[in-house]
Amino acid sequence: MREFRAAVAQPEMALVVFFCSSQYDLDVLADEMGREFAGVRVVGCTTAGEIGPGGCNEHSISGASFPAGSFGAACGVIDHLQQFEDASGQSLVQGLLQELESSRPGSKPDNTFALLLIDGLSVREEPVTRVLQGALGSFPLVGGSAGDGLDFGRTLVYCDGCFHDDSAVLTLVTTEVPFRVFKTQHFVPTEQRVVVTAADAQHRRVMELDGYPAAEAYARLVGSQVQDLDPTSFAGSPVVVLIDGENYVRSIQKSDPDGSLTFFCAIEEGLVLRVARGLDLVKNLDHAFTEIRAAIGLPQLVIGCDCILRKLEIEQQGLGGDVAALFRDNNVTGFDTYGEQFGGVHVNQTFTGIAIGRPATEATHA
Questions:
Q1: Amino acid 243: pLDDT
Q2: Is 182 helix (H, G, I), strand (E, B) or coil?
Q3: Phi, psi at residue 209, to the nearest 5°?
Q4: What is the C-alpha separation between 205 and 147, in angstroms, rounded?
Q5: Per-residue pLDDT averaged across 334-362, rounded?
Q6: Are 40 and 16 in contact (CB under 8 A)?
Q7: Alpha-carbon torsion 77, 18, 337, 342, what sign?
Q8: Which three-class secondary structure state does DSSP give residue 280?
């Protein structure tokens, strides 16, 4: 913890953001965060992997601090996501906007962004993201779903000095420094398609595709056997849906014993799913960073949310060195997620984030 503080601390901090392995003693870590950054707003979450100056890591902690001279921040928690109501999300946004306006007047969509960290096992990302973005209006929102490796057991977010489950943390940041929010994915749809004919939308489970047991139908589509389906095969052959003219990945989390498939994203009966084909992941990522640099120059910091299934694909294809180099060259700090948020949509198998340009005083990250 002292190493983390030494790496990110600066004289006047408006905000600290951190991403940590769920393998830590989180009660101890929460106490140390409160002690080491007393008086500073601190938000964070558990991860399925961390991204820092050394590239992609596991069982570590990464993060960044934002200098008060260039940044203002307001943050708040939504607890009890299973009972989430639109009014609670709208109230939180209005309160944070008012708080930000009182401390740094003049907040508007071109100088303020929202970062959402949310329990990745809550199965509530879709309504929460939709409501928060609706309340934010034109203020851009980006975020990630907390993870815990590949255990899928307990995922937590941090705010107000402690970790919370079944919760989300929303942080609004205003700055005169140029920034750019972004989303990139390297999958395109093929002509192979199926229709969801039976589903449990509440739990993101698909029982049937085209009238057949879902796992069996999916395995046949991708040329595999049901018993061979695992996170690596799901990472390499996701499905996509078309929403308002744009293709969104709907990633599969696991094959269930009863022959159903559990997804990371919203799923419902009647959806047409297309098997997706992956393009060059490294080239796609490099192109995304090229566009960012063209817009704001070399970023001093990128807060990145990268899907766990992208990480698995990167490992499977031996791309770790190339991806880590791109992350280092573009100053990425972030985490591997159980899903990403962009605008009002919860997405999968994307890399989303906020790239922050270079003022006189730079953010420090670790």
A1: 79
A2: strand
A3: -125, 120
A4: 19
A5: 89
A6: yes
A7: positive
A8: coil
